[in-house]
Amino acid sequence: MNPNPHPHPPGSVLLADDHGLVRHGLQLLIAEVLPALRVHLAGSLAETVSTLEQAGRFDLVLLDLTLPDVHGLAGLHRLREDFPYVPVVILSAQDDRDTVLAALDAGAMGFISKAASPGELREALTGVLVERRIHLPRSVSGGLAALPDSGGRELSTLAALGLTERQIEVLGYVVQGLRNKEIARALERSEVVVKKHVTAALQLLGAPNRTRLLVLLSQKGYRVPSMRAAAAD
Fold first, then answer.
1. What distance lies between CA 155 and its chain's CA centroid?
2. What is the percentage of the chain residues whose pLDDT exceeds 90?
3. Alpha-carbon span 28 to 23, nearest angstrom
4. CATH number reported for the structural domain that contains residue 179 in this entry
5. Would strands 60-63 and 38-42 be described as parallel, antiparallel, or unpaired?
6. With contact defined as beta carbons under 8 Å apart, do 191 and 199 qualify?
7. How does residue 75 score in pLDDT terms, banded at 50, 70 and 90?
8. Which residues span the domain enclosing 40?
9. Beta-carbon neighbour count of residue 208 at 10 Å?
10. Read out DSSP for the chain?
11. Is residue 147 part of a domain?
């Protein structure tokens, strides 16, 4: 039996950070945890955008909030607008609760703190890149984690709470940071229909908005579905 329950990690990640030492240090750490993963580096938002335009599809962008040519969450807004089907996780030393929640509200599918210990960082990277679990710092998640034997819960299990198959499908796009118009395009449905599905799902889960939904799913250890099929359409 293969001891690795997830033998096929995502193919490539783009790491955007303005400090060369941090970039290369994280590249080495990722190579240690996920040796099959291809890591591309960028030192600015302009370089990030150029790489996304020229280097093909990425499975994930790890984005710092302190790039030299953009302020705060403006870089995240730009990526979500120009590359809606590329999942973005924030990697930053600014890990206070307000910053994390603002990043989620702007479309990030997770947040990794640079203040995390090497062990915590390894766990976060493995969770996000291999198990595709939503990861948030403990300042927001409350320190709760997925059950050790869960391997990350599938969103399909939300059916037990009364969600329909379509509502769960829509939630899969929501946690990737897509807005209603991108979800509508992917599903070939109207924005009105998508909004109804999102609203109903949030009500059933007891989440007042998308940001709180992501926190809730992170606390419960749910996995993020792949966007490859949608991006290929």
1. 15
2. 46
3. 9
4. 1.10.10.10
5. unpaired
6. no
7. very high
8. 12-139
9. 9
10. --S-S--S--SEEEEE-S-HHHHHHHHHHHHHH-TT-EEEEESSHHHHHHHHHHS---SEEEE-S--TTS-TTHHHHHHHHH-TTS-EEEEES---HHHHHHHHHTT-SEEEETTS-HHHHHHHHHHHHTS-B----HHHHTT----TTTSSB-GGGGGGGT--HHHHHHHHHHTTT--HHHHHHHHT--HHHHHHHHHHHHHHHT-SSHHHHHHHHHHTTBBPPP-HHHHH-
11. no
Please provide the size of the chain in residues: 233
Tell me: do 161 and 200 sit in the same domain: yes
- At residue 62, what are phi and psi to the nearest 5 degrees? -100, 115
- Which among 48-52, 86-90, 131-135, 215-219 has the top mean pLDDT? 48-52
Kindly indicate the confidence band of residue 227, based on its pLDDT and cuts at 50, 70 and 90. low
- What's the token pair of residue 56? 């093909």
